[in-house]
Amino acid sequence: MSVTSHPQPRALLSVYDKTGIVEFAKGLVDLGFELLSTGGTARKLSEAGLDVRLVSDITEHPEIFDGRVKSLHPAIHGPLLARLHQEKDATELLRLGYAPIRVVACNLYPFGDAAARTPPLSDDELLEMIDIGGPTMVRASAKNHRHVLIATNPDRYTSLLEALGQAGTPADVGMELRQSLALEAFEHTAAYDVAIAQELHRRTTGDPASFSSMEEQRDRLPQSILSASNKVGSLRYGENGHQAAALYVSHDAPQGSSTLVTARVEGGKAMSYNNYSDADATLRLCRSLSTDEWPTTPHACVIVKHNNPCGAALAATQQEAFEMALASDPESAFGSIICFNEVVEASTAESVGDLFVEVMMAPGYTDQAKTTLMAKKNRRLLTIESPNNRLAPLERQVVRKPIEGGVLVQTEEPPIIDWTKAKTVTEVEPTAEQIDSMKFAVRVCEQVKSNAIVMVQGTATVGIGPGQTSRVEAVKIAARRAGERAKDCVLASDAFFPFKDGLEQAAEAGASAIVQPGGSIRDQEVIDEANARGMSMLFTGHRLFRH
Q1: For 40, 311, 372, 393, which has the most beta carbons within 10 A of its beta carbon?
Q2: Is the pTM of this model over 0.85?
Q3: Catalytic residue among 6, 26, 251, 306
């Protein structure tokens, strides 16, 4: 018995994203297909003048429960799952009178959109947005891709029609395309399930990022780590030329260009893996400084090289913020990434001049500023869409770090320090100006790789010592970069001084005030040394490691 007893092949079309569906359906009709469809897709095809049969006509069963059950029927899933290369399945399909379904176009309602509605849907309303028949249809087709061509991405319609036309019959379409389409289909349903699981976790257990205390965050970390992202494009290579790399956007990323991955990129060559990695560190610190904590110095500029800040400043004007940040380490700023928290002005662009900058980021650029900046070859400008053209502050988030055999997960946020509870531990009290500088220094220090030392004057860095195995060495590096500007500076350390030698180096460099977490068994030794040198020192009780 042969399935050729059903001479006309069938295509089942049921899509949320109706991009190109009419043209695809017309192409299928031209190739001799009979069209089956449901709901809104059927209406759209009919309005286009196409002859389409409803799924309910095939099942001979009406939709029930307000459309909850439409396609879940043997008359649909029998043809989708029949192993036509096996005589037993082919014979049974004919006995049942079911014609094979050779092509399926189905994509799902983006659950994340439903979860993000304002005002939020009730739990019952949200559950109604969970599709059952669609994912089942997609998975069945993908499982049986030897006989069913499943398209979940409208971008595939044209190539699928071409393959069908060249093959002559649906059965003769090659396995390579079938497997590729099936893989896309399973990725489509996997992303859909991830969105559901994440939203239900948020509603039932709670989002760790929504809670302040470590204990509350820890209790709400998920039992399973799930993620779904879509490939934006390949990158030239990874950190090094022998490594492959690509860029992906999270399925729950906000619409528009408000994130680094979705930012509008203009000018120069394509962004690289290292560009994006460094840009992330730059943007993170700039957001951390883009708050209302410094009302007289609202303009932030951050300069990063190799994932570490080499300069950061807050100032009354944007141009001043840039010049102060650049002065922190002008040598390292060569080939750096720079971020501003507000629209870049013409005067700032003029100050940047011919400086070799890999990437610049901001909520926008004046026309004159863009013209000036783009005059430099290969300079890339990224626009991060922001409310009121000012970068939104950094928010608490859950971050992941792959390690061999698994993943580390933690919450991450700007340092939330109750400065009313910070304790002066020296005989000399820090001045109000020094405390303001401490607050800025701590904010920058949190974004520097450990061991980290940051020297500041006012609200501008003058020396940064990043990523050293020795805290003393980190102090030496920061002091060397600061030079004479270290005199009477405020110094921040991301962790306690385990011995007094680090403080000795800081004092000899010129630091007059220290802010650190405290907590060493030798704290008193360090305090005594600070007192002997007439320095002020504040303990925050808040460690700032960034490995």
Answers
A1: 311
A2: yes
A3: 306
